[in-house]
Amino acid sequence: MKKRQVVMRNEGSERSSATQVVRIVRYVECRKNHAANIGGYAVDGCREFMAGGEQGTTAALSCAACGCHRNFHRREVVDK
């Protein structure tokens, strides 16, 4: 799932123009430890977050591949 984040910065001076920074946010491999309750460490191998529903719904926050919440996937931010 790719999400665009636009940050507008406006300096106090009237002469300065607004600076636009576009950041692309990707959620990659799942980091959920499925063996934490027995004291071990095991991940499921999910390599990329795929939303389970349309953006803006609660289903969009769970991964269609592994069923984990989006917060378990590593967040990657790229500035353009």
From TrEMBL:
Query: GO annotations under biological process?
Result: regulation of developmental process
Q: Name one GO cellular component term.
A: cytoplasm
Chief location of this protein?
cytoplasm
Residue ranges of every copy of the ZF-HD dimerization-type domain listed in the record: 27-76
Tagged with keyword Cytoplasm? yes
Where does this polypeptide localize? Cytoplasm
Q: Which GO terms describe its molecular function?
A: DNA-binding transcription factor activity; transcription cis-regulatory region binding; zinc ion binding
| Keyword NAD on entry | no
* Keywords, comma-separated and alphabetical: Cytoplasm, Metal-binding, Zinc, Zinc-finger
Q: What is this protein called?
A: Mini zinc finger protein 2
Species in which this protein is naturally found: Sesamum angolense
